[in-house]
Amino acid sequence: MRQFMETEAVSGIVRDALGAGAQVVGMDRLRGGSKKGVYRVHVEGARPASVIVYSWAEAENFWPAGQGVDAADPFAPASGLVPFLAAQRKLDSLGVKVPGVLLADDSRRGYPADVAVVEDVAGDTLEALLQTDPERASHALNDLAAMLDVMHRQHSPQYGRVDVLERGETASGVSCEQVVLERAVGDLAEAAERDPGIRSASTRLHDRLQELSARVSPRMEHGLIHGELGPDHVLVDVSGHPVLIDIEGLMFFDVEWEHVFLRLRFGAHYRALSRPGLDPARLDLFMLAMRLSLVAGPLRLLDGDFPNREFMREIAEHNANEALALLVR
Fold first, then answer.
1. CB of 39 within 8 A of CB of 52?
2. How far apart are CA 217 and CA 160, in angstroms?
3. Contact of 270 with 262, CB cutoff 8 Å
4. Of 81, 102, 119, which one is at a domain's C-terminal end?
5. Which phi and psi (to 5°) does residue 54 adopt?
6. Which of 60, 87, 119 is the last residue of a domain?
7. Is there a domain that residue 1 lies in?
8. Is the backbone peptide bond immediately before 99 cis, with ω within 30 degrees of 0?
9. pLDDT given at position 329
10. DSSP string, 28-70
11. Residue 65, pLDDT score
């Protein structure tokens, strides 16, 4: 039985952030997180009247423990206070809106896990606004496109997560395309063990990955990308401006990886975010790799006790079909 944050622990953390007069009068664990707990905490006796608390406790992480995970791998699980703060500092320095940090604590004195208290951005997700308020969402999409332009124009000769590079370390692998290929081959093998359709086409999928990889030319510069930017990871504040969340995976990488994910998650709304000059060879390789990742990842989550099981199963089935469809184009 997983043990999530309780009011007593949250009260101490919030008092540390807002002052001794802050009294917690309610809290809600927000849905959607698979690596950290996200809590909206309502407060009396202090301002603001509500904050968001992040907890990176083991009980909040629904992903099965990986064996021999290379922390320098750009796609290694990005979880914890260190990658969060590195990403927050980087984006804030560029003028990219992210929730402000009110407290960051990795001492484990008051709570046995890394925790942070951040600004509660008043507003809805862009995902919700696309359904309920298309005009407001359209303005936010345009602002998000400009924000992504700022990020993608930040260049580095090295690729890797921001916190890894900030420490002066080097990401594993020899190139972005090689990292993606090796990950995709592993995802294919894992998916083939669980999905009959992928299993029956595994040889053809493997050959197709190799073929697409061979078409990619070397590149020496990499842009700054969020890495998992769906409309659910964008809040829209009361002024209509987009605010990025779930930023721990921020990294320098091929911007085509970001655009493939944007295309999948934003669908018809991707038009506002698309940009000319992307490498079609990288887009083709990354699309197949992304589809395979979105089969293997959700099925891996289902090995554990992730609660929203039908949703994850639907993601895996949809992306398995889409991966197979790429073989006949």
1. yes
2. 19
3. yes
4. 119
5. -100, 135
6. 119
7. no
8. no
9. 61
10. EEPTT-SSSEEEEEEEESSSSSEEEEEE--GGG--SPPPSS--
11. 65
Closest residue by Cα to residue 148 from 273, 280, 27: 273
In sequence order, what DSSP letters do the residues of 258-315 get, joined into one string? HHHHHHHHHGGGGGGT--TT--HHHHHHHHHHHHHHHHHHHHHHTTTT-S-HHHHHHH
How far is it, in rounded angstroms, from Cα 207 to Cα 87? 36
CATH of residue 241's domain is: 3.90.1200.10
- Give residue 68's pLDDT: 55
How far, in Å, CA of 16 to CA of 41, rounded? 14
pLDDT along the chain (329 residues), means of 10: 83 95 94 83 94 91 67 86 96 97 92 94 94 96 98 97 95 95 97 96 98 96 97 96 96 98 97 97 98 94 80 94 90
Cα 127 to Cα 135: distance, rounded to the nearest angstrom: 13
Residues 196/187, Cβ–Cβ less than 8 Å: no
Nearest to 87 by CA among 45, 65, 116, 107: 116
Is residue 2 in some structural domain?
A: no
Q: Using alpha carbons, select from 9, 10, 33 the residue that is nearest to residue 232.
A: 33
Domain that holds residue 169: 124-328
